[in-house]
Amino acid sequence: MTLDKLLIVAAALFCCGLYTVMTRRNAVAVLMGVELILNATNINFVAFSFFLSRVMGGQIFAVFVIVLAAAEAAVALAIFLRMFSTTGTVEVDSADQLKG
Amino acid sequence: MSGPADYIFYAAAAMTVGAAILVAILPNILYAAVALLFSFAGVAGLYVLLSADFLAATQILVYVGGIIVLLLFAVFLSNRISDGKATNPTHFRLPAAAICLVLFGVLSYAAVSTPYAVKKGVYLPTTADIGELLMTRYLLPFEVASVLLLAALIGAALLSRPDRAVPGKGDMEGGKG
Amino acid sequence: MIRYAHIIPFLPLLSFFINIAVGKRLPRKGDWVSLATIATCLAMSIGIFYEVFQAYDPNFKYHVVLPWMSVADRAVFNTGILIDNLTAVMLLVVTGVSTLVHLFSVGYMHGDPRYNRFFAYLSIFSFSMLGLVLAESFFFIYIFWELVGLSSYLLIGFWFEKKSAADACKKAFVVNRVGDFGFLIGILIIYATCGVLGYDDVFKAIGEGKLSGTLLTLAGIGVFAGAVGKSAQFPLHVWLPDAMEGPTPVSALIHAATMVAAGVYLVGRVYPIFTPDAFLVIAYIGLITLFISATIALTQNDIKKVLAYSTISQLGFMIMGLGVGGFTAGLAHLTTHAAFKACLFLGSGSVIHAVHSQDIQEMGALRKKMPITFVTFLIATLAIAGVPLFSGFYSKDMILGAALEFGMRHPRHYVLFFGALFTAGLTAFYMFRVVILTFFGAPKDHHKFDHAHESPPSMWVPLVVLAGLSFSFWYSGWFGTLIQKPKSVANLAGISAPAPIATMEHAAVMTGDVSHGSAPAETKEAQAPSHGTSAPAGTPRAAGPAAHGETPAGAAHGADAAHDAHIAHTAHTYAMYSSVAVGTLGIFLAFVVYSFGWVDPNRVANAVKPLYNFLLNKWYFDELYEKTVIDGSKALSRFLAWFDLTVVDGLVNLVAQIGVFASFLVGKFDDYVVDGAVNGLASATIGGGSILRRLQTGKLYHYVFVLAGGALVIFLIKAF
Q: What is the mean pLDDT of residues C243-257?
């Protein structure tokens, strides 16, 4: 377990999350992708915190990320539910009212 | 670190990444959500290996216990489960995959080729330190985060109300990052 | 009196203004105003002449010069008065004839609706003529020249209701103008070269050589052109017969005695500037004129027309006389002609007044009914025919003598003498034709004859006065002495020099004082120093530029001087005898044809019908001018009108069309190019917008894709 291996893991997670965001049609699935990305970030923080210096900042940052991810997930899902109740679907393709 | 720690590390890493890949690929959202759960679990394992004990616990509690459940609720509430929807649009998979792969390649390369000033890792309990820092040095972010949570709470509650033609006045906290 | 000479012209001018303005309201319509002023002028002229006569100096000169206006001190024009012997004589002639005509008009124009205006016009004419005579520079003589023309126009067209009168006055003015154009050119040549316009200044300048050669000849001919117009010489003689449309007093005053004499006067006044070539032109024009008009006069039946052509012929004599060097001769004839021609015209006026016709074929045997008119008319006719003892003989004989002398010196020009001699015979013939047909024989129109009566005294008194002046003794003693040829500044030997001796000799012959050779020369010698005013005509021989080496103050002359005197004497003798012979022949033939009836004039006329018609129709001059000048002018004006309408207007319209076309183009440009650019810009924007809007799919994953792709690109760049 070296730093670079962990970073690679985090990168893989990040890319999977990105793929999910880009590809999935269901909004909830997109949210899952976002969670994956956030987790990848967290892993990076903690890894650096562990290997480079014993400063706790990295872990504290990760704590906050988790907090925010939770809040965001809650709100996002509330939005999705609202969307479902108004339009009857949760597909991202249908949310193109900002189309130019 | 060598020895059995490495094997645990590889196992955890494999679970994490494998589950992540499954999340990306599985057409059925329910299966994807379960895969996500396993991915989170794997991440918690990695935390432990990185001497972030408090964080691992928090991860399990919040993510696995909270967010996954929330996601599952949302899935159930927003889909007719009978049709396992959320099939991917076929025309977009290749470009996205290409980008992701390239990105992965770049990031890996960066990670491997950068000479980090690596120190030897020390395993220590972190809970007390984190608690102390939260009360002293990172007090402000702590308080702000609590306010944020409050706002999110209110917003979510507002948004989830039954239809009464009230425009959602919830705090749109910047969306996706 | 001579000091007040400048007042003389202004008295008639004053009378003009009075008569024009308030004449209608004055008692007798103001004729006495004109009469009084002109009579005053006559009195003053007599006084001036008396003073001049007292001086008895050939070189007498009274010259007053006043600066009048200057143009930036570079061109200075003077005004003033010049009185020498010639002027004094002309003053007498003009005022005398004018006064008599005024008197005649009182009776003749009686009852005319515009009576006061007639006298006003007579006054303005008198003013103009007197100014002309007194002028001392080309500038002023030209001014008065034109004024005289204007007065003539007004007087000829006095009865302007008659179309023929209106046409005649226009014709007179226009034809005069043609001559005046030449006059102006002559003056301009003189002014351009000499820079001055006063007579003396000009003579001095020409003498210094500022103007010479061909240019001087041209200037002389130009000035002579004025005389050609005013004195009705060929080819500008056509206006005078038509001018008979005016009342008879006008014909007497203007077209016999004074205005037409102005041309002759002009030639005499500027005599020194003519070159021999110019003199030849003058002489030949005079010859042609006198011949043509005499032939026409043979055929005319209107008494006034006969007199008109006779006037033209006599003016031709005068001009020719001046041209051959007979300065004194020409001017003498001017003076005598004024008297007898005025008498003839007034006499004809009297006849016309009595018979109410102008056609001599309707008259006859009037001597019984109008004795005074008859006698005065006869006297004047004898004068014009050149019968000895009458004034006409004196002056016409002098002219013939000068012409013969000229011919003897220049044998190529003998035609001048013979033509003049022949025409003198013609003159006698046609004048006596008129006398016989009018006063002798049997009355042709009994109705008119019964009506005829003698005229009132206001009409026959002038006749008597003028007839009385038609005798030679009035002129013979002093005229030749006082009026002598001035020294030429044209500076060429030949014509100018010897003649004064001839004149002197002639005068000596006439008075029976036949002494030639040195004696008259000595008499002249004695006279010359005593009248020492320097002058052009001081001692003619001495001043003569002939290079004969005459001694200025010697009693003995060179053989040439005596030779010249001998030629002159011979010429005059022959001339005298031949003119008497010819005149007698003419009178005799007139009686033969018209009185004795030995030859029938109608048969003669039929025998030479073409010639007769040619003469009767005035040599078709009017028709010729009509066809050439008039039609030419009309054609020119038609061409100019066409040019203006087509070319000029066409150009203007073309420019307008170009403007319209240009604005059309600009409009199209504005529509297509400018609007096109604007619209194109808008279209481009819209097109660009509709292309770019496809970026905004509204689909989240697209955005994420782009985001990720961009970040990747940055990574890659930064990494490598």
A: 85
Assign C692 a pLDDT band (cuts: 50, 70, 90).
Answer: confident
- Going by pLDDT thresholds of 50, 70 and 90, the confidence category of residue B91 is low
How would residue B83 be classed by pLDDT, with cut points 50, 70 and 90?
low
Q: pLDDT tens digit string along C387-432? A: 888 988 989 999 999 998 888 888 888 888 899 999 999 999 999 9
Query: What span, in angstroms and rounded, lies between the C-alpha atoms of C136 and C235?
Result: 29
So what's the pLDDT on residue B164? 62
- Token code pair at residue C674: 């400018």
- Cis preceding-peptide flag for C610 (omega within 30 of 0): no
Assess contact for A9 and B49: CB atoms under 8 A. no
Please give the angle made by the CA atoms of B68, B70 and B73, to the nearest 5 degrees.
Answer: 110
Query: Residue C577 in 3-state DSSP?
Result: helix
* Residue C83 three-state SS: strand
A100 vs C693: CB contact, 8 Å cut-off?
yes
Quick one: CA dihedral C333, C335, C340, C341, positive or negative? positive
Residue among C552, C343, C589 nearest C462 (CA): C343
pLDDT tens digits, one per residue of C630-680: 888 889 999 999 888 888 888 888 999 999 999 999 998 888 888 888 888
pLDDT of residue B85: 54
Q: Which of A18, A97, A100 sits opposite C708 (nearest CB)?
A: A18
Report the alpha-carbon distance of residue C677 to residue C665 in Å, rounded: 17
Q: What is the dihedral of CA C82, C86, C88, C93, to 10 degrees?
A: -130
Alpha-carbon distance A29 to nearest alpha carbon in chain C (angstroms): 12
Judge: C705–B96 Cβ closer than 8 Å, yes or no. yes
Please tell me the predicted confidence (pLDDT) of residue C300.
Answer: 87
Phi, psi at B163, each rounded to 5°: -60, 120
Query: pLDDT by residue (tens digit) across C505-559?
Result: 344 444 433 333 333 333 333 333 333 333 333 333 333 333 333 334 333 445 5
Contact A95 C700 (CB under 8 A): yes
Quick one: how far is CA C615 from the chain centroid? 24
Rounded to whole angstroms, how far apart are CA atoms C565 and C509? 12
State mean pLDDT over C243-251: 89
Structure tokens at C50: 């008396």
Confidence check on the interface: ipTM exceeds 0.85, yes or no: yes
- Which residue would you say has higher pLDDT here, C320 or C31? C320
CA distance C576 to C396: 9
Q: What is the DSSP string of C145-208?
A: HHHHHHHHHHHHGGGTTSHHHHHHHHHHHHHHHHHHHHHHHHHHHHHHHH---BHHHHHHHHHT
From CA C57, how far away is CA C49, in angstroms rounded?
Answer: 12
Question: Looking at chain B from residue 148 to 177, which residues have their Cβ under 8 Å from any Cβ of chain A?
Answer: 148-149, 151-153, 155-160, 163, 168, 170, 172-173, 176-177
Is residue C646 helix, strand or coil? helix
Question: Closest Cα to residue C484, out of C267, C328, C270?
Answer: C328
Distance from CA of C680 to the nearest CA of A (A): 22
Rounded Cα distance, C581 and C588, in Å = 11
Judging contacts by C-beta atoms under 8 Å, the chain C residues touching residue A100 are 692-698
Three-state SS annotation for chain A: CCHHHHHHHHHHHHHHHHHHHHHCCEHHHHHHHHHHHHHHHHHHHHHHHHHCCCCCHHHHHHHHHHHHHHHHHHHHHHHHHHHHHHHCCCEHHHCCCCCC
Q: Quick check: C697 and A96 CB within 8 A?
A: yes
How many residues are present in chain C?
Answer: 720
Q: Which residues of B touch A9 (CB under 8 A)?
A: 13, 16-17, 46
Indicate yes or no: CB of C705 within 8 angstroms of CB of B102.
no
Residue C222 in this model has a pLDDT that exceeds 60: yes
Residue A18 forms contact with C (CB below 8 Å): yes
